[in-house]
Amino acid sequence: MSQIALPLSAGSQGPTRVVVGKANAHVAEALQTPENWPFRTAVLTGPPRSGKSLLARWFVASGKGDAVDDAQAMPEDEVFHRWNRAQEQGTPLLIVGGEPPWEITLPDLKSRLGGSLQLEIGQPDDEMARELLLSLAAERGLPLRADAADYLIPRASRSQADLEQLVATIDRLSLERKAPPNLGIWRAALEAVHGPEEPRLI
């Protein structure tokens, strides 16, 4: 398990690190060598809040190449224009979409992206989810210890978005109750995010 520190300026908003585990290690490795990509282009997809945009920011800030974030929400001819420009300039291009499959209707764009490197982030396993939970808490300055992760991870879903919401809820409840995170707050947060029946309770 490792983390990628984003080379961002001081005071940048949002997460500053990407947790790397089995779900995204192949993506992090591929982003290191864009010169090996077909057409110097890669298409990155994955679940919401899985770090796609963070990896794209790291890719650009590290000088590896250019990136088009949230490409599924853009007009297809604009994405095709960015692809053409990158080809003309010889610049590696990372195109970030949403959850697969990405249905493209523009034939030229469909053929170009279909021949590019396909990268997909999966759902985190228990080890990665644990590291992600603690990393998200640290970003907020929320004091979550290892015993918190021991309790929460077996009871939480494997959705990155749900884990992020869980940490935010623990933070909110801790502030509202003017108490450090404890078992009562962990339980209340799990119920707020997942309902009264915890999805993976063992």
Structure, explained:
This protein has 202 residues and is α/β, with parallel strands linked by helices. The protein folds into two domains: 2-120, Rossmann fold (3-Layer(aba) Sandwich), CATH 3.40.50; 126-194, Orthogonal Bundle (Helicase, Ruva Protein, domain 3), CATH 1.10.8.60. It is 45% helix and 12% strand. The protein contains eight helices and six strands. It has a four-stranded parallel β-sheet with strand order 4-5-3-6, sandwiched between helices. Strands 1-2 form a two-stranded antiparallel ribbon. The longest helix has 18 residues, at 160-177. The radius of gyration is 19 Å and the shape is elongated.
Summarize this structure as a short list of keywords or feature phrases.
single chain, Helicase, Ruva Protein, domain 3, two-stranded antiparallel ribbon, alpha/beta, 202 residues, Rossmann fold
CATH superfamily of the largest domain: P-loop containing nucleotide triphosphate hydrolases
CATH class of the largest domain: Alpha Beta
**Major sheet: order of its strands?**
4-5-3-6
Number of helices: 8
Secondary-structure-based class equals: alpha/beta
Oligomer: single chain
Question: Helices and strands, in N-to-C order?
Answer: EEHEHEHEHEHHHH
Mind sketching the topology for me?
Elements: E1 2-5, E2 17-20, H1 25-31, E3 41-45, H2 52-61, E4 66-68, H3 76-89, E5 93-96, H4 107-114, E6 117-120, H5 126-140, H6 146-152, H7 160-177, H8 183-194
In short:
This protein is α/β, with parallel strands linked by helices.
